[in-house]
Structures are given as structure tokens and as C-alpha cells.
């Protein structure tokens, strides 16, 4: 098959520069790249379509065509709007007026067009809707995260809705997401919970029936075992281990430096609940006796000491962490420092997995899927994860535990889960083995690609029968693309008490 991924936000280059360094360069880039490469390895022709940028600050995104080393996946960059980088919220009119026509022109020029599109995020989904209308080529839609949940987290009210829409363009996003899930051949989610909780939000009622199993496929993402496998060795493995030892020498008391550790990694975001984890550690003398607490984040070039150099969003997390460390006299037991890039992170996981008693912790308030704990499990660390969201499916099935689930709102429960692994060597080893085997059995990119392939083959082999199609509104038509959806429509969707 000839498969094209639609991912206008963020960008791709052959060497994965800028990953995690901008809000638009998040996990969906990893996801799209890995699935695309795995499909190409299975013999399919694969394009990743993204936006071309002619901007001195982003020189890697200027060429029209690119490719990943040792892969047949082609990166196709096509212009949309002004040449400079634009945040994803500003792309909507340019996608309609420029990017979709440029995709059609590109394939006419090439003399071949994909058998199927797979769209990612609402902006990619909108483009797939418009491409299908022009070509009758079907598409799948992978939302990753939907706008309604983001608006929920911003505590939207009728009073502040206009201001939030002006900043984030929620009206356009909701309409694009509704069209995408309504007109796709299949909606792909990472978990069953995502299907019912995210797509079942009142905003999406009338667009898709979450109880119609034929409209959904659960396809979880995978772990790159060449990076995170317990037997992998990164080019910077030794350098990463030396960096960790240096950071431990800087922050951890000398008599504690050989102890195992509780490891948390990822961006400093309040929803990741680093504060709840630190609170659990602070209130548990048995934990403090047995382990140190280590927090990795690329937002911490100078750890907790130089808060002025940290981005404002990270400061919101870092300031209360520092206050709690001081209040509970945890100096010498806690270290916060940067570990840059996936290969270094994997090397860091292996460093601590070699110390029995070390545990990966993710007590997030809610985690849509939770790839990070699966990566840590692949490297050999047992995991303690939030019970809210995807980890409740990936680390527990049919009464069998592959990780320890905890209530993120209860520091005592987080401490209980950690102590369950830290305090007993046999339990630690059992969970380390079970979590790692769970990844090998179910969560590799090869398995993800196989599941996509099965869906694509079924769609391409038979006609897609749409029912109850939503109309494409004027704001998503080239002539009127600059128009914004009326605020009244956003209010009617978000504050509806029944299906629109």
C-alpha cells in the first residue's frame, strides 16, 4: 500500500531536532515517525506530509523533500501561509487555503497518489476530510488528545470562553475534530478509555457514536527497543552515566549516593504531579531511608538552584518543589537535573535499573496513554503509575498486575505503592520482569504498525460507507477560510446538556 501521514503541526527532520523543545513538537512526532518507519519496514510506501518552513530559526525544515537515514520513509514539506514558523493555533486558514491544494498539486506532479491517508490531531484530520472530498481517498483519524479535555482543564466558563477561544481557537478545533471523527473510516485510539472518555465528551456528541465498535480501533503506541531495551547501548551511554554520577555527587549526601532511586522524568507540568510525588517521599521516612528521589527534565539545565533560568511554565512546578524540599529538610536526598534526549534518558533508566530497588514513578493527575512508564519498564525498571487513564489498561489486565497503580490525589497511596516495590526485593524483581515482558508482548512499534496495517487493508479493500455526514462549514472553505466560527457555536457545543 501507499500510505501518507498528515501532520501539519510540529515538524519532522531526519535527525529529530527540536523534539520536546516547543509545545508543537511533542509526542505525536515520535508516534508518527515510529509508525511510519515500522510500516515502511513491512514493505509499504510511506510519506509523512508536514509544513515547509523558510525561517532562519528553523533551517532544518526548509527543504521540500527529506528522508530518515536507513529508511524509505519520505518527509514531504509543503508550504502553508507565510514562510516563517507558526504555532499550530494559527494554521487553520492556511491549511484550508494553501496546504491541502499543495498536497493535491504535489501528487499530481508525482503522478501517483496514496491509497489511504492517516490523519493526526484535529488539524491533520481536517486536511484529510478536505482531501477525501476532493479525491474520495479514505482516511483514519488519530486524535492523540482532543480539544474538549484541554478546555476542561482551563476551567472554561461562559465569561472566559471568548478569551480562551481568541488564544487557542477552540471553535475551529472542535469543528475540525468533529468533522474528522465523523468522516473518518476508523477512529484510532490508544486505549478503550480514551474512546469513551475523550470521544464521548458532550462536544463530540452527534459527530460519532462511541458505542459503535466498528467506528473505532484501539491501537496503542509502542516502545523503541533499539533505544529503551534493557540490552541496548547508546552512543552516549558512558557519558550519561558519568553525568548522573556527577549530579548525584552535587546533590546527594555522600553516604546515600549508592542507594537506588525513585525516578520521575518528563516536562515540568502541574498535571504530571511532581509535587504529589515529592509530598509522598517527604511524608515517608521508610522511603527516605531506602531510596533517593531523582527528577529528570530538559527544563532543568541548572537543576533547582537557578530558577530564574527556567521557563515560566516550569517555574510554576519548580518553585513549590523547592519550598517543599526546604520545609522537610530533604537536601541530600533529592536531585533535579537534565538528561537530554531519548538515548540519554534510556541510558539513565538502565543506570538505575542496575540498582535493585529503583522504581519509575508517574503519579500524574491523568495520563491519556502513558508511554514513558512503558519505556522505563522496557529498560528494566518496575513502575508505579497513576490509576487515572491509560496506565490502568496497560499495567493491569484481567486482575494481573504489570505495575503498581496509585491514586495521584493521595500522597499516602503513592508512598504505599512505592514502598511495595522498594521494601521487598522479591516483589521488585517480579514487577521488573512482568513490566518488561508486558512491553515485549504488546507495546512495540512493530505491533502498532501491524494493527494499523490491518485497519488500512480492510478500508482500502472495500468502500467506506459514511452515514450522517456533518457539513463542512464556511470557515473550512478556501474562499472563506479567514472567517472564524461564531462564538455562539462554540458555546452551544461546550455548554450543551444534550447532543447538539
Compute the CA-based radius of gyration: 23 Å
- Uncertain residue ranges: none
By CATH, the topology of the largest domain is: Rossmann fold
Number of DSSP helical runs:
19
The geometry reads as: globular
Instruction: Tell me the number of structural domains.
Output: 2
Number of E-type strands: 16
CATH homologous superfamily identity of the largest domain: Glycogen Phosphorylase B
The assigned structural class equals: alpha/beta
Mean pLDDT: 92
Distance between the termini: 38 Å
Q: What can you tell me about this protein's structure?
A:
The protein is α/β, with parallel strands linked by helices and 500 residues long. The chain folds into two domains: 2-222 and 446-494, Glycogen Phosphorylase B (Rossmann fold, 3-Layer(aba) Sandwich), CATH 3.40.50; 225-443, Rossmann fold. 43% of the residues lie in helices and 13% in strands. The chain has 19 helices and 16 strands. Strands 3-4-2-1-5-6-7-8 form an eight-stranded mixed β-sheet, with helices on both faces. Strands 11-10-9-12-13-16 form a six-stranded parallel β-sheet, with helices on both faces. α1 (27-41) packs across α18 (445-461) and α10 (274-282) packs across α16. The two termini are 38 Å apart.
Amino acid at each position: 500500500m501507499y500510505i501518507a501521514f498528515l501532520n501539519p503541526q510540529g515538524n519532522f527532520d531526519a535527525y529529530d531536532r527540536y523534539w520536546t523543545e516547543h509545545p508543537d513538537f511533542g509526542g505525536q512526532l515520535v508516534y508518527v515517525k515510529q509508525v511510519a518507519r515500522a510500516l515502511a519496514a513491512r514493505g509499504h510506501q510511506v510519506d509523512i506530509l508536514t509544513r515547509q518552513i523558510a525561517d532562519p530559526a528553523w533551517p532544518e525544515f526548509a527543504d521540500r523533500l527529506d528522508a530518515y537515514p536507513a529508511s524509505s520513509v519520505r518527509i514531504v514539506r509543503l508550504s502553508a501561509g507565510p514562510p516563517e514558523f507558526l504555532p499550530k493555533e494559527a494554521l487553520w486558514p492556511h491549511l484550508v487555503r494553501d496546504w491541502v491544494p499543495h498536497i493535491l498539486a504535489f501528487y499530481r506532479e508525482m503522478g501517483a497518489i496514496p491509497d489511504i491517508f492517516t490523519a493526526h490531531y484535529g488539524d491533520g484530520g481536517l486536511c484529510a476530510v478536505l482531501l477525501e472530498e476532493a479525491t474520495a481517498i479514505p482516511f483514519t483519524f488519530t486524535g492523540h488528545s482532543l480539544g474538549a479535555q484541554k478546555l476542561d482543564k482551563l476551567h472554561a466558563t461562559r465569561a472566559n470562553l471568548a478569551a480562551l477561544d481568541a488564544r487557542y481557537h477552540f471553535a475551529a478545533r472542535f469543528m475540525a475534530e468533529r468533522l474528522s471523527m465523523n468522516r473518518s473510516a476508523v477512529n484510532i485510539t490508544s486505549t478503550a478509555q480514551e474512546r469513551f472518555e475523550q470521544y464521548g465528551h458532550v462536544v463530540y456528541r452527534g459527530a460519532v457514536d462511541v458505542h459503535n465498535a466498528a467506528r473505532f480501533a484501539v491501537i496503542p503506541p509502542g516502545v523503541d527497543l533499539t533505544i529503551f531495551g534493557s540490552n541496548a547501548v547508546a552512543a552516549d551511554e558512558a557519558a550519561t552515566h558519568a553525568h548522573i554520577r556527577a549530579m548525584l555527587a552535587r546533590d546527594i549526601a555522600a553516604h546515600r549516593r549508592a542507594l537506588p532511586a525513585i525516578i520521575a522524568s518528563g516536562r515540568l507540568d502541574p498535571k504530571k504531579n511532581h509535587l504529589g510525588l515529592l509530598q509522598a517521599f517527604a511524608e515517608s521516612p521508610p522511603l527516605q531511608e531506602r531510596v533517593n528521589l531523582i527528577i529528570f527534565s530538559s527544563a532543568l539545565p541548572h537543576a533547582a538552584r537557578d530558577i530564574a533560568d527556567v521557563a515560566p511554565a516550569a517555574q510554576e512546578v519548580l518553585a513549590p518543589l523547592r519550598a517543599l524540599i526546604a520545609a522537610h529538610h530533604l537536601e541530600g536526598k533529592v536531585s533535579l537535573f537534565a538528561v537530554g534526549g531519548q538515548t540519554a534518558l534510556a541510558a539513565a533508566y538502565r543506570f538505575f535499573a542496575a540498582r535493585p530497588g529503583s522504581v519509575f514513578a508517574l503519579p500524574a493527575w491523568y495520563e491519556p496513554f502513558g508511554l514513558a512508564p512503558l519505556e522505563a519498564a522496557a529498560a528494566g525498571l518496575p513502575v508505579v503509575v497513576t490509576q487515572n487513564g491509560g496506565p490502568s489498561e496497560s499495567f493491569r489486565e484481567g486482575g494481573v498486575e504489570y505495575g503498581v497503580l496509585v491514586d495521584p490525589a493521595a500522597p499516602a497511596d503513592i508512598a504505599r505503592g512505592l514502598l511495595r516495590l522498594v521494601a521487598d526485593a522479591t516483589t521488585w524483581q517480579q514487577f521488573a520482569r512482568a513490566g518488561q515482558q508486558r512491553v515485549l508482548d504488546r507495546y512495540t512499534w512493530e505491533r502498532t504498525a501491524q494493527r494499523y496495517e490491518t485497519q488500512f487493508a480492510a478500508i482500502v479493500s472495500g468502500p467506506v460507507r459514511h452515514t450522517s455526514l456533518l457539513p463542512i462549514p464556511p470557515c473550512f472553505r478556501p474562499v472563506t477560510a479567514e472567517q472564524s466560527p461564531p462564538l455562539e457555536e462554540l458555546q452551544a457545543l461546550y455548554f450543551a446538556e444534550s447532543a447538539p
